[in-house]
Amino acid sequence: MTCNVGRMDRTGRIVIGIVLLGVGALIPSIGLDWRIGLLVIAAVALVTAVVRYCPANALLGINTCKEKTQE
């Protein structure tokens, strides 16, 4: 897979993933459906940040990765 998630994009995904993970896991007043949805979105954000590849970016032709390396 070619890297298509750059440094700033990766940092944003990590921050958003951690925040959504915290909200979904620690706030019991929201409904179960919302909690599951937040946890799924957090997991997707964190996984795409770690592997530095986002299928949605690839479909849309977005590449924020400045490096010319293959991962």
What topology emerges from the helices and strands here?
Layout: H1 7-26, H2 32-51, H3 55-60
In short, what is this structure?
It contains 3 helices and no strands. The chain has 71 residues and is mostly helical.
Describe the overall structure.
- With 71 residues, the chain is mostly helical.
- The protein has one domain (7-58).
- It contains 3 helices and no strands.
- The chain has helices spanning 7-26, 32-51, 55-60.
- α1 (7-26) packs antiparallel against α2.
- The longest helix is centred in the N-terminal third of the chain and has 20 residues, at 7-26.
- The chain is elongated and about 45 Å long.
- 15% of the residues are buried.
- The model has no long low-confidence stretch (mean pLDDT 91).
